[in-house]
Description:
six-stranded antiparallel β-sheet; Thrombin, subunit H; mainly beta; single chain; eight-stranded mixed β-sheet
Amino acid sequence: MDSAYWIFILAICSYRSSAQQMRVEKFVKIKMKYCWNYEKRTSIFETPVFSYAGNDNLSFNNCGRWEQTKAGSNPPWDVFLVAVIDERLRKLYGALVSDQTIISDGSTWDAGHFKAIERKEQVKIYGGECRERSDGNSCFIKRGLTNLKMLDVKEVELKHGEFYSKSLLVIRIERVEFKPSLQPICLWNRGNQDDTSQNFYSQDIWNYKLKKVDFLPEQRCFYSGPGSEIQKQYCDAYSNSICTSRSWVDEKIFLYIERLDRFYLRAFNPFLSGASTEPWVDLLPFTNQIVSASADLAAMPKIPDLKRKIDFGQRQSFPGCGQKSGENSNPWHAIISRIDPIHEGFCGATLISEKTLVTAANCLYDQRGTEMEASNLKITLGLHSSSKNHEDSQQNIMVSSIIVHPEFNFNKSDLKSDIALIILQNKAQLIEQVVPICLWNDEYDLSKIVDTTGTVVGWVRNDSLQEVQIQPIYYQQCYESNRPFFSKYLHPRENFCAGFPHNKTGACIGENGSGFVIEKDNRFFLRGTKSVPVDVGGEEEEVKTCNPQHFALFTDVTNFLKWIVDNKR
Length: 569
């Protein structure tokens, strides 16, 4: 056998050995003082911004209300999922967080439960009032049998560091009709800086009572002297956990906060009970993952750190870039079209060098989600009127290759990493009407260009190339303009919104893939590319026609500059 075979076998064995070593290593006990986060403060988690704004910032409208009119009544968000599998009763406790979503502890499901997932029609959902009948089938743990069906289940990994993780199930059900005995619980809508002032409760899921517990500094859950020992996995977990006094409840799953007559779901499943303390898995840092997996919740995505800036120095990204003559000239704008003459140009692109253009990745897929063949595409530069068969400045150049960003996934339709490069077979001839634009060389922080006017060009419904001047806005302003839509498609740092919806000035779908260009010091720079959702919208958000009353989304090229520079020709 050749050496490549044995190298492959050795690589597989090495991978399996390292994975097994990691599984073993997380159970190894070390002294507390050797934990990486020993005696460090808990991580600071910021306040989530949910879809139901107002002054309450609720995760779902009118959530967290509990009219405790009956002694011993259990919370109205308590839900049980029950199925008989292999002649055994399989049950799962969950909390209703919206009219279509239940969340539950994924670690309590065994093989029989996962088999129940495959047989969704066999799962019965109990919630609301219990009216016992002679057949005894209408009640389970004081919850009534509903007519609701389980539609889908997603598993969310709650990962803390290298060694510790838990799983949470986000279960989609048929829409619930709320009543006093069946109401959703709120997700926590504040940060963790003032946890010490909150009222915490754990719940015994078998007698339905909430028991008040005391919030404790996280060190109290683990610390019994620097020489005490702890498993490595809990070193990762404890600085992101919530520590409370022990409730002495036999079986519990969720930790609640009561604030201003409203209940909030804050944490779940204590993972290590001490003599008098319990650490819980904090759900706050995973709010966005839970929302994304749900059927009907929305929250503004978190804003990550800025990418490291690429410094082009005193020189620009391409010699002579970003300079134009003529008031309405856009010499870097290009049209992408298929070779077949019956197809007109379908997207825009922006020239950044003699052989490279930037466009939206979604432009380069057909309706079936298949990436187009580079050999079937051409680029037109130097064209300013679509009614003319040919202009003296016009250049038609075949495409050599397409480079789609590796993290773009057309089938997910979420617009993440919606950027691609087009490489030409031959160099463009640089003339007055064909000039590359400069790549952005200033501050990456979006707040630095808010209220700065940029230009987008495209053909729209006119024979000549059209311009529109619009301004970027803050992420939160964009999100709040249409919370359900932008909770899915806005990815801070990766893209941004721009437009003037109040006076019906926006970038329409005709400019898909075209550049968002800003002028600085008599030179033009590329800051974004027009990103258009594929097969999204619906009754509430029609994006398949030009709608200037909504903000448009642009991929922020600063987040991808290193990738662009590494791959351009």
